[in-house]
Specification:
By secondary structure, this protein is an all-beta fold. The longest helix is centred in the first third of the chain and has 6 residues. It has one helix and 22 strands. The chain is globular, with a radius of gyration of 19 Å. 2% of the residues lie in helices and 53% in strands. The strands form six sheets. The chain has a four-stranded antiparallel beta sheet, with no helix packed on it. The chain has a four-stranded antiparallel beta sheet with strand order 5-6-7-8, with no helix packed on it. Strands 9-10-11-12 form a four-stranded antiparallel beta sheet, with no helix packed on it. The chain starts with a helix and ends in a 5-residue tail after the last strand.
């Protein structure tokens, strides 16, 4: 969906697509969660033992098991054009915990967690910056982080992060990340932050109390979802020029959420049918 198409209504086009079955690692399900500009896909799938494992797939190479750090579960959330993959895996004995990882073809899977709590890496850009969220024992909550090889994991967000939870879901090539932080009242608020300068921008809401940003393109356009003044959830597009805009819903749907946006301004997401309150 994009804003111009929304104003004109839905457009029907006869477009030819090739659909690939990426398969599984022997189990009964698989989920593709990210794709890079070279057509390489990552996600997670069940193996023969019924264990979820992170995978890497392309149309020319069969699905590859990216492994785990302790032989248990893993899931891949992001991939850049260099083929670096990020996600989460279970790690540590005797008490296993979820840790963020980065995977490369030359070095395999490595933990990037330095906070000794659970963590998750959601995105990586071609400069090697990784963003996500992790549990910080000092603050007793999940907080947004940026990781860079040779530098390590650093907190991102307000100078005093203790009152609020935060996380980052998306990252563009220029180091701008999109995600959320909690207000002092405990409401999630969509934010955009630069990983090199730690400059934080609050994106607002559509009149309600909560919002979260889930995608960002290289133009700095941000998408996500927000509550409205009447309690509905709507997908939004945020730009520097126009702020947060309601993407609306199609007839027959009551709520919407935007997941990602590309550099052409095309937005993907989901909508909910039914009636609110039923």
């Amino acid at each position: 969906m994009n804003t111009s198409a929304q104003e004109r209504g839905p457009i029907a086009r006869a477009t030819a697509y090739t659909i690939y079955d990426v398969g599984t690692l022997g189990g009964n399900s698989s989920y593709a969660l990210a794709i890079n500009n070279r057509g390489r896909v990552v996600g997670h799938t069940m193996n023969l033992a019924g264990v979820a494992r992170a995978f890497l797939w392309s149309s020319s190479v069969a699905m590859q098991d990216l492994g785990s750090l302790e032989g248990t579960t893993s899931s891949a959330w992001g991939i850049n054009d260099l083929g670096q993959v990020v996600g989460k895996t279970m790690y540590g004995d005797p008490n296993k915990r979820q840790v963020a990882f980065i995977w490369t073809a030359s070095e395999g899977m490595q933990s990037i967690d330095e906070w000794t709590g659970s963590s998750d890496a959601f995105a990586v850009n071609d400069a090697g910056y990784v963003v996500g969220r992790g549990y910080h024992a000092e603050y007793s909550d999940n907080h947004a982080f940026v990781w860079m090889s040779g530098v390590g994991m650093a907190h991102l967000g307000p100078a005093d992060p203790r009152p609020s939870e935060s996380g980052l879901w998306a990252l563009n090539r220029f180091g701008k990340a999109a995600g959320y932080t909690h207000s002092p009242e405990g409401y999630g608020r969509a934010v955009c932050i630069h990983v090199r300068t730690d400059r934080l921008s609050f994106l607002g809401t559509l009149g309600g109390s909560t919002s979260k940003a889930t995608g960002i393109n290289d133009l700095g356009q941000v998408v996500g979802y927000s509550s409205t003044s009447n309690g509905a959830t709507r997908g939004f597009l945020w730009t520097v020029e126009h702020g947060m805009q309601d993407l609306g819903v199609l007839p027959g749907f009551i709520e919407s959420s935007a997941s990602d946006i590309n550099n052409s301004g095309h937005i993907v997401g989901s909508m909910l049918t039914g009636s609110r309150g039923s």
